[in-house]
Amino acid sequence: MTPAMLPLITGAEVTFWICAPLMVLGALGLVLFRKAVYSALSMAFVMVNLAFLYAAMEGPFLFAVQVIVYTGAIMMLFLFVLMLVGVDAPDSVVETIKGQRLMAAVAAIGLLALIVLGVGGAVTGVATGLAQANAADGGNVQGIAGLIFGRYVFAFELTSALLITAAVGAMVLAHATRVKAKAGQRELADQRMKAYATTGAHPGTLPSSGIFARHNSIATPALLPDGSIAQASVSSTLAERGATVDAHELNQITGGTFAAVTAIRDAEEDEE
Amino acid sequence: MPMIPLETVAPVAATGLFSFAWLMIALPATGALLLLLVGKPLERIGHLIGSATVLGSFGVALVLFVQQLGLPAEARAISLPLYQWFTAGNWSINIGLLVDQMSILFALLITGVGGLIHIYSIGYMAHDERRRRFFGYLNLFVAAMLILVLADNYLVLFVGWEGVGLASYLLIGFWQHKPSAAAAAKKAFVMNRVGDLGMTMAIFAMLAMFGSSAFVDVNQHAEHLDPLWATIIGCLLLLGACGKSAQVPLQAWLLDAMEGPTPVSALIHAATMVTAGVYLVVRSHAIFAMSETASLAVVIVGTVTLLVGAWIGTSKDDIKKVLAGSTMSQIGYMMLAAGIGPDGYAFAIFHLLTHGAFKANMFLGAGSVMHGMNDDVNMRHYGNLARYLPITFITFGLGYLAIIGVPPLSGYFSKDHIIEAAFHASPVIGSLALIGAGVTAFYMTRLMLMTFLGAKRWPKSVHPHESPRVMTIPLMILAGLSVVAGLAMNGWIQEWLEPAIGSHPHEVEWLPTPVGMLTMLVVALGVAASWFVFGRSDIPATAPVSRNPIIIAGRNDLFGDAVNQALVVGPVGHLARGVVLADDKAIDGAVGTLVATLGGLSKQGRRTQTGFVRSYALTMVAGAAVVGLLLLLGQMA
Amino acid sequence: MNVDNYLYLAVILFVIGAIGVMLRRNALVAFMSVELMLNAANLVMVAFSQQYGNLHGQVGTFFVMVVAAAEVVVGLAIIVTIYRTRRSTSVDDANLLKL
Fold first, then answer.
1. Which residues of C48-60 are buried (b: 16+ CB within 10 A; e: fewer)?
2. What was the ipTM of the complex prediction?
3. CATH domain A10-87 topology
């Protein structure tokens, strides 16, 4: 076999064929997971893979930016907001808008087919590669910097204005004006006593979560002296999600262990 | 009438002091800006600033005039280009000043008489809380009027033309709290617009014909102008002149304009602005020289107006309206002279200047009388004021003698020349002008008799008194001018103006000619008739009911308003109501139907809006797919 | 390797993102789908940058990222605001503008 017959496999190609299927899977995960947190993680996975592709396509600067800005900053912002607001029940699988799924499928397939038809094979010729362009200024970062601060400097300055505006806009949107004066210690105490007097609500702190031999997480409820579960000791959110541990099971283990320990101690006492 | 194009001398470029000719305009313009824009801080010295700028302007004009006197005749016309205003296509309009023999005389009249009137106004308006604004407007007027007469082309002249129209509007309506004053201002403004239409169209026609609106170019190329176009431009210019100078048929606004403060009547509606029409006709002598029809139209307009004005003057009881009628009549004389052609141009300007002096004098005198009579203008409430207002009586009397043409006062020279020139041109016109002179003598004598002589008729609450010095001194100066202006300029002015306007009048006589003798006889008859009617018997305090159609017509301004109402206001009103009806029914109906249809469709279309973002996203994606499909099909086709 | 493969990958990602926007009710997930579509477009730009041997495509991607960052900040703020008033992040619940 002559060298010309050898399929020319480059590092970029290998990277592509590894990353591309993973990316498609990640993207499908984004759409299909019912829990938003999983979707977000799939999205982060897609982005990291995309960063690898950038690296393979001779864009080390974009590789870094993709990881730092997209995956590191933007996706974390998403997760942060998810934790803040999105922890309600997972999406229902029932579609509420009539015909939405069918139409969406038709539109998506139509779009896919059209774009593939339109762009497929439209570009011919082997990729030029960026080796020369990157080398011209002494490196990829220098090359991009030359463009940003040269030809695109005006757009660059505009983006700075855009970012400032976005920051201010986010603050304005997320800011909630206090409608009445903040309650001080005195007022809070009064409120608690009033609640105790009218509804009998416990004026003290809530009981802490339970501590068992094998579990001490906030998901474990505490036990009252009579052995019943103190409902106030676990967060209502966790209770709603059904994420609490059944205290009775834990108690049984503890009780069993305690009984065993007691039996040994009794036996030792008997020996004496 | 022989019509021959005349050689006029081309202006030479300005040098030396003439380079500062723009100061004449800049001074009052600055005054107006200061007084109107700075406002309150100048409240206490506004009248002094206003007067000082005009007097300064007079100083400049005087210096330039003296300089001109020292120059040879052909070098006296000075052009001072200032800057290029705009260019459009082949046209380039430059702003420039033309200081020639005619415009310097106008500048002297405007700033001289204007300055005296400013000083007079200090006293007259002393108790008006808006005196600063009044002086601001007066300065604005003087600046605009100077632009009008100093402009070197018609377009710049038009700027001044509109400027004086604006100032006139503001000043007639100065006491805007009076509905009559506000209405009079609006009337003057609207009727002036009719004249301006003629003016603008004349300028357009000149630009089309000559490619320029500069006086130099127009004068130079007018010789080759098609006579039809000369007639058209001439008639359009005449229309503009009629509007500004209150000539028939656009005369109706001048009588109402007397609603303004009396100094305004003296400055704008007697001495300067209303004579702008005469200036325009004389300035356009090259055009009128090419069209006998247009010149004839000017003569007819002038003759009719001089008779109409005199007629109105005979039957009014309002002292200012008598003077306004008289102004119309005298401007009619000037128009007549200007229409006669080269024989009359110099006389038109001559009469314009002397009239500026004696009519301003008489208006200010009337203001002085009103000042003493608690602003009463009805002459039937006057009588025997000569004893109480001696200075006003004497100065007014000199003006009176000047206007009726008693030798050797100014009116004698200037008016007799016009009548004589009219007889030269046509005996009919001459006779009519002669009759006008008699009627002038009649109504002016009536005014004198009713105001200053006879028995006193004012109520007990009125205490006539002489005006303060600041008002009487301008009166004395103007009276002095009324006496000597004719003597001083007779003979000289024709020569002086010749290079500028190409007049070549016949030799003037110092001694009365047969026509002059005849004129004096007619004037004497007029005076006698007036004394016969008004001097011998007591004058009733209210106007007696008269069945004499001549008197009724005169009291109603010859039904000028009724004519306007019937010919213009009524039909336009009907048209407007018709248009409103059509708008309400047809157009609004059509629009309403369209709106209802679209509204109904929208109501249906609104149902497609579900409010679900995801549906919109779907639509967008589908839309993108469709666009892609179309692009693909387009590629394949 | 030809740019075609990258294009196909980008198209697939783009369409998956579009499906996510069309079908997911959770505003955050829909928003992430939009980000996925943006990333697909970025991929195309970088791919063509390599195809033609100049850096303009990469600079374009950089700008898209900057704009996306700004957009995410404002978008998330809006979602938080809506959540605060309506206690929901479902895009179907924000439909006050319809009749």
1. bbbbbebbbbbbb
2. 0.92
3. Four Helix Bundle (Hemerythrin (Met), subunit A) (1.20.120)
